[in-house]
Every structure is written in C-alpha cells, then in structure tokens.
Amino acid sequence: MRERWIGALCALLMLLGLAACGSRPEETPPTPEPDCIEIAPESPATPEPLPEPTPEPVKLPVEVQALPASLYDFLCRFDDGYTDRMGGREFDSANAVDVRANLLAQIVCAAPCVDFDAYPVQSPAFHWNDGSRDPMNWAEETGCYAEFNAEAVRWIAQKVFQLSESDYKALLERCFYAGAFYQGQNEAGEERFFLSVGSTYMPESLIHVESAMSDGRRYEIVYDYLLRPNQYLGSYEASLELKQGESGSYWSLARQTAYLPVEEAVDAPELFGLLTEPFVLSNGVDSWRTELRITEDGRFSGSYVDNDLSENGEDYDQAIYYADFEGRLVNPRRLNAYTYSAQLESLDYLDYTLDYIVEEDDGWRVLYRYADAVGLENCRTVYFYAPGAPVYKLPESFVGWYDCTQPLADTDLELPGWGMMNGEEGQGFAS
User: Could you tell me the residue ranges of all domains in the chain?
Assistant: First the structure.
C-alpha cells in the first residue's frame, strides 16, 4: 500500500512539473544598444539659379570714313604723352614728367571733346608780366603764365583719362617735383594750378586710322600719330567712349597702348593676280622710262628706253638706250597688312645687239645702244606695297622714286595704287 502511494505521489509531482514548464513565458533576448544614432539626411536645398552672364557687346568693323569727326578732334589734340604701357601707368613719353609734354598740361589746356562746355572747367586766366604768383619766373621767360581751376583738372583726369585717385595724386606729385607746375591760391583764396604757357604748347598734329571696331558704344581703334604734314611719331591702340555729361558729350579714354603688331610672313599666292596694271619707273620728264607687266603666274615682260638728247658723237647726233626683257618672280609672301615680297628667279634681255646708227629722213643720226633697264639692276628681292599703304611708313628711297613717276602731295598719307621696289637698289615703281 505504501509503495502505491509513493508511486502516485511521484506521478503527481511529475505532472505538476510538466504543467509548470508549459506555462513559463519565453524570454526575449535583449536588444543591443546601437553604436551611434543615425539621423536621416535632410533633402538638399535647391540651389538658386546663377544669373545669366551678360553677353559682351559684339564689336563689328567700322569704316574709317564713318568714324565721328569729334573722335579725330580728340586724338589729334592728344599726343603720345599719355600711354598705358603694358598695363602700367606711364604719363608721358619721356621720363614720367616732361615740362613740355606733361599730362597735366594736356588736361588743362588741350583736353578735347565734342563740347568743351561739358567739362566743369573755367577758362584759364593768363597773367602777363606778373610775377606776384610766379616763383618759377615763367613770366620772365615767356611773358605769360596760366592759372587753372583745380577741380576742373581733377574732373578731366578722372572722367576723360580714367585716372584713379591714387594715379592722379602720383601724377600731381611727379609734375610738381619736375617743375612742370606749381599749386597755390588765387586772389580769392581758391586752389589753383599755375603753368607756364610754354609747357602747354601743342604742335599741330593729325591721326591716320588704320582700323576701327565698335559695339555701338565703345570704339577700339588702331591709329598712327603724326605731326603735319607727314612726320610719323608712333602707332597706338585706343579704347574710347563717347559719354554724356550734364551739359554735353565728351570723349573718355579708357586705354591707350603702343601698337606693335606681331605679324609673320605667310605665303601669298594671290599676289600676282592682284597686279593687273603695268608698273612704271621714270624720271618724271619722259626722258627715260622702264615699264613692265606681271602675269598671274609671276612671269613678267617689259622694256626700257632712254632718249638722251645730250649725248652725241662724231657720227651721230643723239643716243637712245633701250632694252627688252622678260623674267619671272617666285615665292610671293605677305609680310604685313600692306607689304609683300617676291624673289626674282630670272631676268633675261632679249635681242641683244651691238650699237647701230639709224639716219632719219631729215638727216638726224641716232645711235641705238642696248643697256640694262633702270630699276632692275642687282635685283634679287622685290617688294610690293598695296594701295592704301601709309606713305610715311614706307622706305624713303621708294617714296622718292615713286614720287618722280606719280607725284605725291605732302597731304597724301596713303599710296594711291600698287607700288614695287627693287629691294637692293631702292628704286620705286608706280602702278
């Protein structure tokens, strides 16, 4: 009986153990701590659109004849004293200040514009034989010195010549120490500049524009500066604009640099086709003459004749020198905007004969003698100058010979037609 109770008790305990196991809740494993807190990225902000770049105004070529006359007036009265050399400020062509060509003198005396009243400038006062405000003794040298409004000078320096305040002050300082002017007050105590009349002298000048471009507002030009009638002083590039002031319009010079074209010689096979008219060399009085024509392939032919009435002998009354010739030019090259070159490959004289005498009907006896053509002696290189070439830039020898055949006036600044020069002897033919 006892064993039965023990067995039952054990069975009961086993049932109770199984019931306890079946009711135990499952354990959830702990969630690991994250190493860092992740933050969702913000949506990128939409960038503001950049403003559209303002397109540069298109500059187009301008016919030189169409340039405003006032532009010529401005540059004709403005010499090479003010030059922006290589981007740096140089105020005159000598050594930053020259008593006879300083920028200050140009500003106050010869700063030209369309309407001079556009400048807030008072007319200069001239003092004759008055040494009261003349410590430089200018009145003794020239009998006169001039007095200028200081604010007018500043306005013109900044508006017309585009000088910064620091450049303007540097200019005044250099001019002052060079003795180009002195600064003081007039009788009313107003600040003034005083200059010698001699330092404000401006020679008569002119400009010859080679090329021009404009965007409708600003002009970019290349020009030559000369003293009349044709003394060449230099070439310049300038950028200037016609602006409107309170009382009128005026020219403002933004930039001016010395013009030094860098040009390389290039083949110019078209050259010979441009030479459609004969070339002539003569002494201008029809006593002797060399004439030749050039074909498109560079071949040429011509003649020379010299009626020498001053020569006679025992058996003749007059001599005529003559020649017929032909040859060929090769290797045509363009050297710059108006200069070409070619090499003389061959030159042959035709029907060469010894001297002979012809007696005319009236008994006049003429000696015919073959001779080398004037203008072709020793020639190896030939230069050609295009119509419109600046006469004042061409070799003096060429211009002198050309002028004999086709006379040039002092006021002729451009070659009227083609010119040809013997590179070794310098004779100039006109076409």
Answer: 60-258, 266-430
